[in-house]
Every structure is written in structure tokens, then in C-alpha cells.
Amino acid sequence: MALALAASPTAAAQLAGSNNRSNNQRVFISSATAPLRCPQPLLPSRLCRAAACRRLEVVAMAAATQTKSVSGTMDECRKQGRTALIPFLVACDPDAGTTVKALQKLDEIGADIIELGVPYSDPLADGPTIQAAATRALQQGTTLDKVLAVVKKASATIKAPIVMFTYYNPIMARGLDKFCRQAKEAGASGLLVPDIPLEETPSIRQVAEQHGMELVLLTTPTTPQERMNRIAHSSQGFVYLVSVTGVTGARVSMESRVEGLIKQLREVTDKAVCVGFGVSGPEQAAQIKAWGADGVICGSALVRALGESGSPEEGLKQMTALAASLRAAI
Ligand SMILES: O=P(O)(O)OC[C@@H](O)[C@@H](O)c1c[nH]c2ccccc12
């Protein structure tokens, strides 16, 4: 499972400051899945180590398949020369059943990883579309347990790993360890927490790792170079490059400085770099691909299509059509 955090105070402050209320694959082998005791008396130590290594690889591969790790999925995409499509939806908007269907549709059209947002009352990094979706979901009594139930239902039927997106407050309320355990049990493969600074990530990652989770970090256009390097170094699954100085929301065009930011990241990491914020359609997705990113993240445009189309059926239709057009563009 992966955790994604807004790994810089700059990012958090930037996102918080711009709030507008109006409007290298690492598979974590837990002690339970690492039965590496060598039959010492039967094998000389070098052979034993080789056997242990092979076994470790097998266990790692099995773990990657079972948990649908984010980094494993990104590695696969890169091997196949495919730009990853990473859609984002708000859980339980318009309702839990429709969210499950929507996740299945996204999986069917070829989403590589799916980000699922826990609706929250004070989404400081989100623009009006996601704020409205979260409000709708909360108004019908959505709780963390209901979101986990959606994850459980969906994860059993889809290939794409689910990264749970949540502000830190719901994690704190549940307890970090319990949250990670329950998310993992539900079948989530990752977590994205935009309001935690880099300095606080080591202790969170430690708990996440105990539950076999990866921790994806975010960097923004205003993150200083040295800090960006550390974020890239610490991020797991992929590095989330926020394309704008501002909140989430579909925009008309991508800022051209994103190309330079991707290049800067390439100089300091060989991890996958995925770009999000502002993607409203196939043109922007194609632009991000042309700039050399490994993945395209799209949220608000899909959230709007699903939640603001009049009926759940129509919403599913609109959202699927948009997601398919993004898939075709990259
Ligand atoms: O909605 P957009 O502009 O397409 O951006 C991605 C996105 O929705 C998702 O990754 C996300 C939703 N809320 C966030 C808050 C912070 C960072 C990222 C996010």
C-alpha cells in the first residue's frame, strides 16, 4: 500500500494559502511474508544465500501481485512504454454503489492506478469541484467505514491498485496504525495525504511500511530544489508533481514550466514522475505525456462528470467517456 504526502511545508503552505472556500519499486516484506530461514545443514552458505535471494525475489513478486503495489504498477507501465493514467474520484459521490461501479469502469478502460478520496469537511488543497463532491458525500452520511467498505468491494474486482487520498485529520481520528491496517485490509495499496510536511513523513512511513504500504510524496512548482530532491528521494510508488501553484481543479491549459520541473526531477531520481492538477481533457494529458512524464493524474474533471451529470447512470457514462478519451490520448 502506498501513502502519498504533500511532503513539503512549502507544498502544504502553498496549498493552504491558496485555499478558496468560495468557490525503484520497493516491495516491503513483512516478517509474516519473509520466511527466509535457510536449511543450514543442507546447503553451503553461499548457495544458501543464493537460494534465499531467489526466494526473496519470488516472495517479493508474489507480494507485489497480491497487494497490487503502486511502484510495481509504475514499473510495469514504464517497461511497456505506457504513460500511466491515474484518475481520482471522491468516495461516495454520488453514492457508495455508484463509486464502486465507477472504479470498475475506470479499471475497464485501462486506468493504471486509482486515487480514491476520503470526503472531508475542510479540504484545503481542493478547489470548488472536489469541495462540492466531498460536501455531497458527507451530506449523505459518508463515514470512513463506508469509504473502507467501498474500497473493499472495488478492490476485489479490479486490477488497478487503489491509493487512498485523505487529509491527515481522519487518519488521526482513527489512529495511524489502525487506519493503515484497515485500509490495507480493505485492499488499498496506497495513501495520499496532502497536509503533512516532509519532516513528519518518516514516522508515518514507518507505520505505513509495517502494513506493507508505500508512501507517495508531492512536490510543487514552489518547492525549493534541495527540498524537491529530498522529496524525490523519499517518495515511494511515484513522485507526484503538482503542476500549478494553487488548488485542484480543471484548467484550460497546462503551465509550460511543468516540462522543466519534470526534467529537474529526472536529474535527481529514476523513480516515476506523475503530473496532476488541472488536467481537464485529452489535450492536457497528451501535453504532459509529450513533456516526458510517466503518468497523468486527473481528478476534478472526472469528479464533475460523475457527480454533476444529473443521474448516477448519466454520470457514469460521462465519466467513462472522459476517462476513455484520456486513456486514448496517452
Ligand atoms: O483535480 P485535479 O486538478 O485534476 O487534480 C488531481 C487530483 O484531483 C487529486 O490528485 C487530488 C485531489 N485532491 C488533492 C489534494 C492535494 C493533492 C492532490 C489531490
From TrEMBL:
NCBIfam families: trpA. Keywords: Amino-acid biosynthesis, Aromatic amino acid biosynthesis, Lyase, Tryptophan biosynthesis. InterPro entries: Aldolase_TIM, RibuloseP-bd_barrel, Trp_synthase_alpha_AS, Trp_synthase_suA. The lineage of its organism: Eukaryota, Viridiplantae, Chlorophyta, core chlorophytes, Trebouxiophyceae. One of its GO terms (cellular component) is cytosol. It holds the Pfam family Trp_syntA. GO terms for molecular function: tryptophan synthase activity. PANTHER family: TRYPTOPHAN SYNTHASE ALPHA CHAIN, CHLOROPLASTIC (PTHR43406:SF1), TRYPTOPHAN SYNTHASE, ALPHA CHAIN (PTHR43406). The keyword Lipid metabolism does not apply. This is Tryptophan synthase alpha chain. Pathway: Amino-acid biosynthesis; L-tryptophan biosynthesis; L-tryptophan from chorismate: step 5/5. The keyword Signal does not apply. Belongs to the TrpA family. It catalyses: (1S,2R)-1-C-(indol-3-yl)glycerol 3-phosphate + L-serine = D-glyceraldehyde 3-phosphate + L-tryptophan + H2O. Tetramer of two alpha and two beta chains. It comes from Micractinium conductrix. Coiled coil: none annotated.
